[in-house]
Amino acid sequence: MAVEEFLRLGWLQWDLVWEDPQANCTRVEALLAEAPPADVWVLPEMWSTGFSMATDQAEPEGGPSWRAMQTWAERYGALFIGSLRVRTSKDVRNRAYAVYPDGKAVFYDKRHLFRLAQEDRYYAAGDQQVLFSWKGWQLAVQICYDLRFPVWSRRTPRYAYDVLIYVANWPAVRHLHWEQLLPARAIENQSYVLGVNRLGRDGHGHLYRGGSVLYDFRGAALLSSGQAEGAFVQAIAFTPLQAYRDQFPAWRDADGFEFLPPLSS
Fold first, then answer.
1. What is the extent of the structural domain holding 173?
2. Is 45 annotated in the active site?
3. How far is CA 209 from CA 90, 218, 225, 232, 256, in A?
4. What is the CATH number of the domain that holds 216?
């Protein structure tokens, strides 16, 4: 498929209602109803519940929150991206879906589980990078804590995204890191990078400042949500991205690496 020159990236930032999928679905629908059109809509990490370890309440694959994303994708003719806690036949995952208007979907399971919140005790980690296409653009999604691990997000010939998207519940106490790491990923991978965060306080009292933001391939901020609640849309262009990569092909000098199994003891 030929690449469309412009891609309208949209995201929603709001105060997630703790452990209340229906209330969060209602809020998403209200924000979308007043939003300008977009080709892609991105929701925060665990957008229907907040960052919760209550895995006993995890929805099954194809559950109500996933079906809501499917409904919105069809209604708005857009790709919808966001993570949910999902119970599979074997375990529970912090799973980001990319749902297409035709109802098809791909998913990415969070690789780096946040030990400080004991996420690694309640969820199983993923081990696959996922690349998907929309309107000719190549997109990838990762989840919150993954942002701290640049080897995992490295753009390679096999993982050749144009837009890298992070969905997050990134707390205010470490907000400076969010502001520093997102542009770093854009610069080192010569790609657009979008980080989508939440607002408000969760059920444990942790504060979130939002700060959802889109960076270009040079690391310059194109649009930031600050601490405002709402729907935000910014168009990005493909030709300048490709021209910059051609003019400054730093990736050609990158160190090679491969993922190896753990060393035996």
1. 7-253
2. yes
3. 35, 25, 10, 16, 37
4. 3.60.110.10
